Amino acid sequence: MGTTTVDLLVIGGGMAGLSAATRVAAEGDSVVLVEKAEATGGSARFAGFVWTAPTVEEMRRVNPDGDPDLAAALLDGFTDGVAWIRSLGVECQPPVPVLGFGRGHQVDTNHYLDTCERLIRERGQEVLTSTWTHALVTENGVVKGADCLLPDGSERRIEATWTLLATGGFQGDPGLRAEYVHPQAADIGLRANPHSRGDGLTLGRSAGAAFGRKDAGFYGHLMPAGVSLADPARFVDLALYYSEHALLFDTTGERFVDETVGDHLTTMALLERPGARGLLVADARVHREWISASYVEGIPGVDKFQLCHRAGARSAVADSLEDFASMPEEWGYPGATIRDRIEEFNTAARANGALEPGRLLDRRPLDEPPFYVVEAAPAITFTFGGLLIDAGAHALAADGNGRSPVPGLLAAGADAGGLYRRAYAGGLAPALVFGLAAARTALGESPAAPVH
Ligand SMILES: Cc1cc2nc3c(=O)[nH]c(=O)nc-3n(C[C@H](O)[C@H](O)[C@H](O)COP(=O)(O)OP(=O)(O)OC[C@H]3O[C@@H](n4cnc5c(N)ncnc54)[C@H](O)[C@@H]3O)c2cc1C
Q1: What is the per-residue pLDDT across 413-431, written as a single tens digit (0 to 9) for each?
Q2: Domains within the chain, CATH numbers bracketed
Q3: Hey, which of 23, 40, 43 would you mutate to test ligand 1's pocket, going by the most ligand atoms within 8 Å of its Cβ?
Q4: How far apart are CA 450 and CA 80, in angstroms?
Q5: Which of 219, 336, 366, 427 is 20 to 30 A off residue 179, Cα-Cα?
Q6: What tens digit of pLDDT does each residue of 236-273 get?
Q7: Pocket test residue of 85, 167, 238 for ligand 1, highest count of atoms within 8 A of CB
Q8: CA distance 102 to 423
Q9: Residues 226, 307: Cα–Cα separation, whole Å
């Protein structure tokens, strides 16, 4: 077996891993980045906005059960992270609002990822693609690298002072989804790269790193039920972001969540309903104002209903609420109950009466025919549970007195857990900020060292 020795071994070449490896290589330290897929980039290739909550207070409001120290570290590092992207000559647009409460920059993510890979190689450091990491190397509890299988079948041991797990979470593994997210999560759609299957979690736990937090949930969106997501273009095209202005009914014909507070939150709630599917109902006004409109400033709107319909989704246009009573039986929903619930909702909304569940951000009635109906199901983008870390991206072990770092081991991006609990304020930003934090730890810099 060949052996290489470096300052930092990075396992996973997406947003977190490439950011860390590039920063370390830029300082002249040695690094090997190992990527399982044929090409680097991971889910970050599909993402476009580096964003998060604008203030600690806002983060606490939307994510009250997340780790406050990690949240503070994310906000502290956000501006430097954006400056780092710009320092590589990658365009970052001026800030815009995201998801109502957040703020962030549209970034040419592919340019950033490709620039990172090029810079690592230009510094004479290695990027190994199609390479499988099967075990961490440990000595007396200290992580000292990993054993990898190269595409030609040969084995390579990469010894490293620091090893960073950045494999992007476990959303690609149905068994882990069922175990750590929800039993019904085994069967939900994947709207992410297919390679993030919990390898970082397995490797980290083998070295004593702790998983957290329990019941943290996941980031995802409602997608048309039963429609294949094999084509990544569908991850965004078919995402039913407009659910925030629609009504969602489960298979018993009841509303069960305040749809207006966020499609990503409704997605988690739907996972727990019978069969993890529901009927999403909009009217002509919602169609005009939201279904065909832009979701984030700078991204042109498309008629999602049409796209879903053409993709073969269970969908229909109802000329009146009466049509709901003759909903096809094989759909498996009580159409007359749903009609009644919509009428009750509209009566209460018009009278400014109580709504149950509430409608915090949009109380307008849905009473302008025709009605646009799509069967929706949750799809997962990345998991919130992962290896517990501190602000320096050290992976933490559970011990009797709390948490202590696993020597030599770092984790960042969706491999890291604790930041969010059933709440979301950006995926690229934590991958960037904690990827750069991991680089600082590997470089022996103090946490506050500026990016240059
Ligand atoms: C359609 C879509 C749109 C999105 N839009 C946004 C957005 O606008 N803003 C935002 O903040 N977030 C967005 N996200 C989420 C964002 O992409 C992720 O949060 C971010 O990429 C996480 O970074 P990461 O480095 O943890 O994982 P990734 O970027 O996914 O990288 C993980 C890498 O690890 C590799 N890997 C897996 N297993 C192994 C292994 N055993 N060995 C080596 N390599 C391995 C994978 O192949 C992959 O390349 C979006 C995601 C998707 C799918």
Answers
A1: 999 999 999 999 999 999 9
A2: 2-215+384-443 (3.50.50.60), 220-379 (3.90.700.10)
A3: 43
A4: 7
A5: 427
A6: 999 999 999 999 999 999 999 999 999 999 999 999 99
A7: 167
A8: 12
A9: 14
